[in-house]
Every structure is written in structure tokens, then in C-alpha cells.
Amino acid sequence: MKQLTVISGKGGTGKTTITAAFAALAQNHVMADGDVDAADLHLILTPHIKRGKEFYGGRAPSLDKDKCDQCGICMEVCRFDAIHNFTRDPISCEGCGLCMHACPTGAIKMGEKLSGYWFISDTRFGPMVHARLGIAEENSGKLVTLVRQQARLIAEDENKDLIIIDGPPGIGCPVIAALTGVTLVLAVTEPTLSGIHDLERVLDVAKHFNVPAMVCVNKCDINPENTRKIEDYCQDKNIEVVGEIPYDPVVTKAMVERQALVEYDSGIVAEIIKKMWEKIEAKLQDGLKG
User: Fold this and answer.
1) How far is 7 from 169, CA to CA, in rounded Å?
2) HEC string of 3-18?
3) Ordered DSSP codes for 133-187
4) Tens digit of pLDDT for each residue in 14-43?
5) Measured distance CA(249)–CA(281) in Å, rounded
6) What is the DSSP letter of 37?
7) Sign for the pseudo-dihedral over CA of 137, 142, 144, 149
8) CA 63, CA 99: separation in Å to the nearest integer?
9) DSSP class per residue in 68-90
10) How far, in Å, CA of 100 to CA of 170, rounded?
11) What 3-state DSSP class applies to 197?
12) What is the rounded distance in angstroms from the CA atom of residue 258 to the CA atom of residue 1?
């Protein structure tokens, strides 16, 4: 079974647009939305949820009012100022547990905290696993791992050949959880200084975990000089630039209509993405790993 993760060093580069197009082009696959902090693949794929489950990814204190003598020590020691009038502010609380250790009467206990939800759904392009992390909740890396595990189970049960993962932006734990052990990474970037900087960082992460990478330059015509810098950088690192997509308002129009670009339009951008997918599919079939 092959696994492809589409990542970007930063948000807003068009990663989900390209992932959705791949969902429309690929055959016999499972989709996994690994961008659990700001999931948006479902906006295009409009999944029908078959099953949903709670995700407990952290711990939070709770107060036994019968044991509390209101000494106020918990409020004094909380460096996040998360306790007021013996009530916890769930947004400010970091779940460090210091209040529990400081409480002289043992009135505070730590317990599992509901951090979000994950779902198994059907889409017009096949099964999809996705999730929604709660506001200000953490442990998104753990939730990404859970999403990937469920996608793999579905792929094994239904004899699917491929898992396409819409990865999170950045280079933190969620990204590591989304790319470790996959067959291939596609890094989507744009020709800006910040785009180049973040591309270099995320390619370093992929290299660290020994995952082969390809690069797609989105909106390549907004700064041709920077696009050439990306090409030169990738050539120096022996990384293939598998596609260069010009800016086109049709991309936004497709999103507004909640359609993958390749099913909404057949213009130049759609053709470039189709050719890019052919190259990626061939690379996946090379049997690099997995």
C-alpha cells in the first residue's frame, strides 16, 4: 500500500486544492485529512459522515467541591491565570496539573479531556477519514496519527492501493505525524521569500525522516525570479519540481462551488495538475517504500 502526503511549509499555498484534485484523479484510494487544526478538505469533498467518535488527547483538572476549603492556593500557583473564583477557564488552562499537586486537601484531580472528534465518511471519490480538533486544544499530532491509522484500516479492509493525506502546514509535530513512514511527499510552495524559506524547512524534515519528496510551485508566475530560485534549490538538492501552476481565478471559483478543480474546469491549470498527478502516480508505482 502506498501513501502520499501533501504538505506545505506554511498555510495558504494551495495544498488542499491540489489534494482534492488528486482525490478526483486517483483510483482505489482512501483520503485522510491530516490538517486537524484547520481542516478544510471536507468543504470540497462534502463527505457523508458514517461514523464519528470522540477524541481524548489531553488531561484537565476537575474540582471536588466537597473537599475544597477554598484556601486559594490553586489560584496562587497557576501561572496561566486560569482559575477564578475556583472555576477553571478551559481556554487558559494548559493542563499542567500544578494545581492538583499544590492542593492541600486533594480536592483537585486530573482526568481525560475531550479534545475533538474524528469521523469516517463517504465521499464521491471514495472513503475519507477526517477530524476536528477543539478550539485551543492540543495534541494534534496524536490526532493526525489516529486519522492515518483509521485510513490504513479502511484501506486494508477494502483492498485500497493508496492513501492520500492532506497534511498540515508548518514543520511541527502534526507534520511529522503526517509524513513519517509514507511513500512520497509532495511539498506545495509559492514563489515568495517566506514560501522559499518554509519549503526548505519542510524538505529538511522530510529528508530527516528519509521520505522522498517532490515539489509543486503554485502561482509560479507571480514572481518568476523566485520560481527560478526554487528550481535551482531543488536541482541542487536533487528534488524534482513536478509541477508549476500559474495563478488563475478559476481555482477560487472551483472552491466556491465546492468542487475539485479537475471536475470544475478543464483549462490549463487542470491540465497541469493532471500531468503532475501522472508523474506522482508513476513515482509511487516505483515502489520507493511501503
Assistant:
1) 6
2) EEEEEECCCCCCHHHH
3) EPTT---HHHHHHHHHHHHHHHHHHTT-SEEEEEEEESSSHHHHHHHTT-SEEEE
4) 999 999 999 999 999 999 999 998 889 999
5) 27
6) T
7) negative
8) 10
9) -----HHHHH-TT--EETTEE-T
10) 34
11) helix
12) 29
CA atoms of 7 and 202, how far apart (whole Å) = 8
pLDDT digits (tens, 9 = 90+) for 167-209: 998 888 999 999 999 999 999 999 999 999 999 999 999 999 9
Grid cell, residue 164, equals 492520500
Q: What does the block give as the cell for 113? A: 479531556
3-state SS, residue 224: helix
Tell me how far apart the 2 most distant CA atoms of the chain are, in Å.
Answer: 70
> How far, in Å, CA of 15 to CA of 38, rounded?
13
Question: What's the pLDDT band for 90 if we cut at 50, 70, 90?
Answer: confident
Task: Name the DSSP class of 220.
Answer: G
- Given a contact cutoff of 8 angstroms between Cβ atoms, the answer to whether 160 and 26 are in contact is no
Closest Cα to residue 241, out of 199, 286, 209, 271? 199
Reported as a single tens digit per residue, the pLDDT across 35-65 is 998 889 999 999 999 999 999 988 899 999 9
Phi, psi of 177 (to 5 degrees): -65, -30
pTM of the model: 0.89
The identity of residue 40, as a single letter, is: D
Q: Output the nine-digit C-alpha cell for 199.
A: 519549503
